[in-house]
Design goal:
Structural class: alpha+beta
Distance between the termini: 52 Å
CATH topology of the largest domain: Arc Repressor Mutant, subunit A
CATH class of the largest domain: Mainly Alpha
Strand content: 15-25%
CATH superfamily of the largest domain: Winged helix-like DNA-binding domain superfamily/Winged helix DNA-binding domain
Largest sheet: 4 strands, antiparallel
Number of helices: 7
Strand order of the largest sheet: 4-5-3-6
Radius of gyration: 23 Å
């Protein structure tokens, strides 16, 4: 029987309000201090979302690379005190700048994933999506309201084991009088490529 694995990732919550760099006002002064053990003495206890500095960027980058990395390993790699990493990591997590995320590999259980795109009319998009989620709570894992395509304004991600199950789900949605169009596609694989993108965005933010 295949081993059941839960994948753990770190996610970064990017917010356009995080525009002010803390580096010039605090970190640059600390870097000139000959005693590195005091590098974090003036770091705020209540972490503010607009404080994105070089040290936090390095910690975030390490966590995105390996969610299981220990604070001692980060401290050793970026050459700052362990207590600094622990305190900053705790603040980043508490303020939801980064979030731990566990993913269940549904494929281990023989479950397949499909996205069903919907055209919902009469301005009932949000109500219909909520209704579908309530009716099929054991099958729908995500719902989305969409803009851009003039015909498709919502989509739902469903899990199923057989084509017959998927057919039944789609047919039941077609019976809804407010749904005028239903199409679907199946997820074959998924790969994350957010680490470098997020790191670059944060670096650009810290320069503003």
């Amino acid at each position: 029987m295949p081993k059941r694995i839960r994948k753990k990732n770190y996610l970064v919550e990017n917010n356009s309000s995080r525009r002010k760099s803390y580096e010039n006002s605090t970190i640059s002064n600390k870097e000139n201090n000959s005693s590195q053990s005091n590098i974090d003495d003036n770091y705020p206890t209540n972490f503010s979302p607009n404080i994105i500095d070089k040290i936090n960027l390095r910690i975030i980058d390490e966590l995105l690379t390996n969610a299981d990395v220990g604070s001692s390993d980060i401290a050793r790699k970026i050459k700052i005190p362990l207590s600094t990493v622990q305190r900053r990591r705790r603040n980043l997590e508490r303020m939801s700048v980064i979030k731990k995320n566990y993913e269940l590999d549904l494929g281990i259980f023989g479950v397949r994933i499909a996205e069903i795109s919907l055209e919902i009319k009469n301005g009932e998009t949000q109500r219909v999506v909520s209704q579908l989620k309530s009716q099929k709570e054991n099958q729908i894992v995500n719902t989305f309201l969409r803009v851009g395509d003039p015909q498709i304004n919502a989509s739902v991600v469903v899990v199923y084991k057989t084509s017959e199950q998927l057919f039944t789900i789609i047919e039941s949605m077609k019976k809804n009088p407010n749904i005028s169009r239903v199409s679907w596609s199946e997820y074959i694989s998924k790969e994350r490529n957010t680490q470098q993108i997020i790191t670059t965005l944060l670096e650009e933010t810290s320069k503003d």
